[in-house]
Amino acid sequence: MDLQVNDETHEIRSDADTPLLWVIRDELGLTGTKYGCGLAQCGACSVIVDGVVRRSCVTPVDGVAGKKITTIEAIEADEIGKRVVAAWIKHQVPQCGYCQSGQVMAATALLKQTSHPTDQEIEAAMINLCRCGTYNAIRAAVHDLAGAEAGAKKEA
Amino acid sequence: MDTISMPPASETLPTGEASNISRRRFLLASAGTVAGSLVLGFGLPVESARAQGAPARGTKVPAFLEIRPDNTIRLQSSFVEGGQGPFTAMAQIVGEELDADPATFIVECAPPGPDYVVTDTGRRITGGSSAVRTSYPTMRRLGALARAMLLQAGSKHLNAPVGELATQPGRVVHAASGRSVSYGELAPQAMDLPVPAPDSVKLKDPSQFRWIGKPVARVDVRDKSTGKATYTIDVRVDDMLHAAVQHAPRLGMTLGAIRNEEQVKAMHGVHSVHRLPGAVAVVAERWWDARRAAEAVQADWKEAGADSTLRVMPADFSTEAFREQLAKASGAGDEAESKGDFAAALKGAHTVVEAVYHSQYLKHAQLEPPSAVARFNPDGTLDVWVPNQAQDIFLADIAERTGLAPSKINLHTPLLGGFFGRHFLYPAASPYPQAIQLAKEVGRPIKLIWSREEEFLRDVARPMAVVRFRGGLDADGMPVAIEAVSATEGPTEGIANKRNAGNVDPAAVEGLAGKSYAIPNRRIAQLYVKTPMVLGYWRSVGNSMNDFFYETFLDELADKGKQDPYDLRMRLLQGNERLTTLLRAVGELSGGWKRGPFVAEDGTRRARGVAMASPFGSQAAVIAEVSIENGRVKVHDIWQAIDPGSIVNPAIVEAQVNGASALGLSQVLLEEAVYKDGVPAARNYDMYPILPPSRMARVHVRIVESGAKMGGIGEPPLPAVPPAVANAVAALTGQRVRSMPLSHYDFNA
Q: What is the tens place of the pLDDT at every residue in B575-624?
């Protein structure tokens, strides 16, 4: 089976039903994508598949063969991803950092779909868990990226 | 109060200094020290230094600092980075006195060993919110010593007396001749210089600080935003196999027959199946294959023998029944604090208020599941990578388990993917003993990862308590007597699995004892009731629940005495300048104290609550604003004023207030570890919800630097949050809140 990850094609030996997460981490050695729960609860394993954020811990690898998969390792090769990383640095978002790969992927996917998301769209998209409680910093970074008009409507 | 009890390193670590040095050389080489860089050599003759008595802490500059030709500076941090920012703080503190930009630092966690005990407590742990406050003077001096060495080398290089030299960030400068030289260039010359006497260097006047006290950017943010940060779970070594385990459902049970061993061995990718104490392990090339096979194991688990050294979990244990048991426990308890004459004062009180409160067991639920990598090397040494917040204690334990001398063990501590107290040495709660055994049996390096489900099974719990309060008010409604008897087992005595008769575990009562309110007659006691749960430290330890109890009951007293809870606190703190200043600060921060209920701009009915706490050497005051949305509590805003005495990095302080507030909200709104029939009801986040982004409050922070002795910052912003929320809810709904989490209540305001 061929897998297209970060613009490279890899021949995969894992079982067809192996979750994409473990193919990325163990077979391709890309450990920036994290294992948190294995149940699509936390979002630490988020990657982008054909422009859409996916939780790789519950995505069987054979379902994404031939699709364009982006992991955190290639995030700065993407124009929007680069902006997201810059915002994460500007707002000093991470604490322990373990969930942040997934958070950056979720924010990038959101901004790829809609460059000026509303508060509701941000709230609906940014649902990954963070035990360190960086939610306000994430929110500030995403609002910053979403542009002034979204920021002005900020009210919870 | 600082109640985390861990023995000092010297008690647990057999020190063979000579071998330690050779080991360190090996470590430096193996850890990728750049060729040609200034690893300042091991200047101090350790044996003679020991013979003359231990050298001053943190003076072995070469053990800590490596100045590279490219002017980057590698700092070995005594403290682990798990999110609270000690790596950045250490770079700021050392950089300040060394005169080097913190941004040029590469910070890593130092190996175990007495060299790295830099704290004034004589022990090395990352916990108890202690990193900065216990090492601050030592780390400043370390930077100053290194600067003195570079000035010496610069003197030779520039052919000018030291007295004519100065430094600019990363450079030694000779102003008279306009010449300068970078630290990196000086590295080879500085290599052979002796470390100056600790007292010979002068520390900067704080008014001259360039980085301390400033919102310096974290040293780890870029790596953590781009997936480059490496945690134990990401460690890869050559020829490594992966392992997964299935634990006995209840701690103490032992493994009987494996009924389907042949089928499991035949599963895809499986290398071997192993019997471990209280667990079955499957080894495979890939973790997913190991995990799938470990889950498929059908094992017979036998009840624990009478000789089990573990805290055995009974088959009929339930948290609900245990809470009832705690509530029924009777007795006066062992006194932790006593002042005045409580009994007489209560008898003479105009009004008596009684209430029973309780808390819940909690899990750490850090996002990184525990893992461990173990590798036996051909030269007889053992490398272990494992999340830990107590290097010397873990090393001693590995030595004891393996029979290897500590000098033969290389313990690595990568970044922690969250910890909150999770990674102290707790019984049966870390995967490294299993990984070591598997590496031995397989003859190859092993990376063992506990699945999230196994982690929820073996993580230790924040204690549960039932607290009986009695309070007495005088005719004016002022509290004159308070008693709290907490039926609980403290985490420290729980971890030790023994109690010294009559001795209160300070970690059980902190936050009930030690309150600053001028209530003249008080009695705080612990009624010891042993639990079958394996207990542990959870962010802010006893304060995490005790300030909830006390501060919420204080609002009950205020209401009974017809007093405003903010005004009452102010009166009870009269004459305490530090705390009245702090309470005023949080009032101002919130736009002026108003309790409500009131109608907010968006038409919702809201109220505010206030609470205070004094954890880990710092002081905190919180106001929370809540409404009820579909019967559920919504926390809109947290205003927190915090006084850690003095600070190193205001941006990190603000982040910690946010993070600790989130964990406090999580506890008060949602979290609870429920057990039935001896097993946890939740084995993943689906059944053990932690605070999601949608329930986070806005957090407003005011840092107050009173100049008092430096306190902690990782834990102190947590304890006042739950009671401030509970008090706001009570003000809004008229319903008393005497337990957490609030998800158990049905509010229809």
A: 999 999 999 999 999 999 999 999 999 999 999 999 999 999 999 999 99
Is the CB of A32 less than 8 angstroms away from the CB of B227? yes
ipTM beyond cut 0.90: yes
Query: Cα–Cα distance between A154 and B228 in angstroms, integer?
Result: 32
Query: Which chain A residues are closer than 8 Å to B685 by Cβ?
Result: 37, 39, 41-42, 129
Among residues B236, B353, B247, the alpha carbon closest in space to that of B285 is found at: B236
- Please check whether residue B699 touches A, CB under 8 A: yes
Which residues of chain A does CATH 1.10.150.120 include?
A: 74-152
Neighbours of B192 (CB within 10 A): 10
> How far is B460 from B188, CA to CA, in rounded Å?
49
CATH number at residue B710: 3.30.365.10
Domain co-membership, B506 together with B613: yes
Is residue A28 within 8 angstroms of chain B, CB to CB? no
Asked if the Cβ–Cβ distance from B686 to A39 is below 8 Å, we say yes
Q: Tokens representing B695?
A: 């329930």
Q: What CATH code would you report for A2-72?
A: 3.10.20.30
CATH of domain A74-152: 1.10.150.120
Query: Quick one: CA torsion of B94, B96, B97, B99, rounded to 10 degrees?
Result: 110
| pLDDT less than 70: residues of chain A | 148-156
Confidence of residue B33 (pLDDT cuts 50, 70, 90): very low
pLDDT one-digit tens code per residue, B93-148: 999 999 999 999 999 999 999 889 888 778 899 999 899 999 999 999 999 999 99
Among B169, B193, B221, where does a domain finish? B221
| B40 closest CA partner among B73, B2, B88, B5 | B73
Q: Is residue B4 in a domain?
A: no
Range of the domain at B662: 319-361+462-744
Nearest CA among B367, B252, B266 for reference residue B308: B252
Confidence label for B4 from pLDDT (cuts 50, 70 and 90) = low
Average of pLDDT values for B743-748? 90
| B171 and B297 share one domain | no
Are residues B224 and A76, on separate chains, in Cβ contact within 8 Å?
A: no
A135 touches chain B (CB under 8 A): yes
pLDDT band at B47 (very low <50, low <70, confident <90, very high): very low
Cβ neighbourhood burial of A2 (10 Å; 0-12, 13-18, 19+):
exposed
pLDDT in tens, A95-129: 999 999 999 999 999 999 999 999 999 999 999 99
List strand residue ranges (DSSP E) for B579-691, in order.
598-599, 605-613, 619-629, 632-643, 675-676, 679-680
